[in-house]
Amino acid sequence: MRIDKLISEMGLASRKEADKAARNGMLFVNGEMQKDVSRHIDPEKDAIVFCGNEIKYRQFVYILMNKPKGVVSATEDGRDKTVLDLLSDEYSSFDLFPCGRLDKYTTGLILLTNDGDLAHRLLSPKRHVKKAYSYTCQSPLSDEDAQKLQEGVFIEGGYKTKPCSVIKEDQTHGKIVIDEGKYHQIKQMFGACQNKITELCRISFGPLSLPKDLKDGEYRELTEEEISALIAASGR
What we know:
It is a single chain. The protein is an alpha+beta fold. It has three domains: 53 residues, Structural Genomics Hypothetical 15.5 Kd Protein In mrcA-pckA Intergenic Region, Chain A (Roll), CATH 3.10.290.10; 92 residues, Alpha-Beta Plaits; 75 residues, Alpha-Beta Plaits (2-Layer Sandwich), CATH 3.30.70. The chain contains six helices and 15 strands. Strands 5, 6, 7, 8, 11, 12, 13, 14 and 15 form a nine-stranded mixed sheet that branches. It has a four-stranded antiparallel sheet with strand order 2-1-3-4. Strands 9-10 form a two-stranded antiparallel ribbon. Helix 1 packs across helix 2 and helix 3 crosses helix 6.
């Protein structure tokens, strides 16, 4: 990779700015001053210092966010704030996107990444990656209706949902675990039981769990262990 391309992709400077900085002695490769930004380097092996800061190259970025209510799971939107709008500028050059979607009023765990292959695998129906949600419903959920949800109910388009797990905490609160992701699926499932979801929060996605100390709108990068677990869940 060319040095100026690396600096530009990392969002540190434009190619023109990188060239000017290099000419002024602000670029070092493996400890040696480098004034030619067209030089090709291996960003994963070579030590690059630009304007006094070491460049740590990352091809892929993986971010776990606690999505707040009222924010949409999209890369851009003409009316509402998106999950990408909550990120700091340091991530602007990575072309991140949400892996899957939570609707505008659903909160909780959402994965943001630029690893398209991993995202595709995690969302593939063939992988059966489980997603757990805590719910609050409007009317008491009977044991009979909970059993119906677990066995599968018919939603929009005549589609019957796959078997899932429902754990009741009380009459109107509980947890539901599904391994598919139809449009507004959980809300439609409860609607099929003549009930209504009033609060919905995703608490886990595959091997990832929503940290209790991560407040609405906050985020952090995944640990190496979490990334490895995600890759394993994707079958890659």
